């Protein structure tokens, strides 16, 4: 059900390209080499990793890779498709009974939907289904929050370590005041660590944390709609009523699209009858 979210890598790539363009437009291609300084990179990345190791335990740090992959994925099921699915499930359940829904699950990829329908098929009370599925939502939210916190902290630590590197460079620069001709180059090197830290924080870590938060909110919202759909199917609600109930979650734009689709279906049926 998931597909690649290209906006994340595209955004990061554009950011780096703009920085490189800004450097080259003022200093030419040779200016790029002036912004590459091994010791500055080591201070920022090494200090960042050290700070994260102090801040988080190993199990939390392992979430980084899993959570990072989430930032590069997006769900291909939108809310309108989800509502259509539950209306179809409701129609079949009313026509053939809840047990008939097990056959439908083979075509459903979302494990949360599968779990809800299986609970409904097993005859679990709606209140219990609601409690079980909401408990899973809470667990998902906590896991995502822990993974997101790593990027949030990285966004805080990277500029700080950049500043530490700059202070180290300034101290070394002040020790060589007897050689004025070296002050400019040493000052440039000192400032590079702040540049690296600020760039990583504002182009990678902070935007990634914000994107993960946005994805979590959307996922929780979709899961809440799924719970309403499962309970509606389990309680035998009329498909039309269920469609109207779930339709309340749609945005105004999606509601207009749904109305247009209904009008097209109505016109198509009228044409067939004629």
Automatic annotation (TrEMBL):
Transmembrane segments: 7-29, 35-56, 158-177, 189-210
Gene Ontology annotations of biological process type: bacterial-type flagellum-dependent swarming motility; chemotaxis; proton transmembrane transport
GO cellular component, one term: plasma membrane
UniProt main location, coarse: membrane
InterPro entries: Flag_MotA_CS, MotA-like, MotA_ExbB_proton_chnl, MotA_N
Keywords: Cell membrane, Cell projection, Chemotaxis, Cilium, Flagellar rotation, Flagellum, Hydrogen ion transport, Ion transport, Membrane, Transmembrane, Transmembrane helix, Transport
PROSITE patterns: MOTA
Domain of life of the organism encoding this protein: Bacteria
Subcellular location: Cell membrane
Entry annotated with the keyword Transmembrane: yes
Membrane topology classification: Multi-pass membrane protein
MotA/TolQ/ExbB proton channel domain span: 106-220
Domain Motility protein A N-terminal: 10-97
Homology family: Belongs to the MotA family.
Record protein name field: Flagellar motor protein MotP
């Amino acid at each position: 059900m998931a597909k690649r979210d290209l906006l994340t890598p595209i955004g990061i790539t554009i950011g780096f390209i703009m920085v490189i363009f800004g450097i080259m437009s003022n200093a030419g291609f040779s200016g790029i080499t002036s912004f590459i300084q091994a010791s500055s990179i080591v201070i920022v990345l090494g200090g960042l990793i050290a700070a994260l190791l102090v801040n988080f335990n190993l199990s939390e740090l392992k979430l980084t890779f899993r959570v990072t992959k989430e930032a590069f994925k997006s769900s291909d099921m939108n809310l309108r498709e989800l509502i259509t699915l539950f209306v179809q499930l409701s129609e079949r359940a009313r026509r053939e009974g809840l047990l008939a829904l097990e056959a439908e699950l083979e075509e459903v990829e979302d494990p949360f939907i599968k779990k809800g329908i299986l609970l409904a098929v097993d005859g679990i009370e709606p209140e219990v289904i609601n409690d079980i599925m909401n408990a899973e939502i809470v667990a998902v939210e906590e896991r995502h929050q822990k993974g997101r916190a790593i990027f949030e902290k990285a966004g805080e630590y990277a500029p700080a370590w950049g500043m530490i590197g700059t202070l180290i460079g300034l101290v070394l620069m002040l020790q060589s005041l007897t050689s004025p001709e070296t002050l400019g180059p040493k000052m440039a090197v000192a400032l590079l660590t702040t540049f690296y830290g600020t760039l990583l924080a504002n182009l990678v870590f902070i935007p990634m944390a914000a994107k993960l938060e946005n994805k979590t909110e959307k996922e929780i919202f979709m899961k809440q709609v799924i719970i309403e759909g499962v309970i509606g199917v389990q309680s035998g609600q009329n498909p039309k009523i269920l469609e109207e109930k779930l339709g309340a979650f749609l945005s105004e734009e999606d509601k207009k699209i749904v109305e247009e689709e209904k009008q097209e279906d109505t016109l198509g049926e009228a044409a067939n009858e004629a």
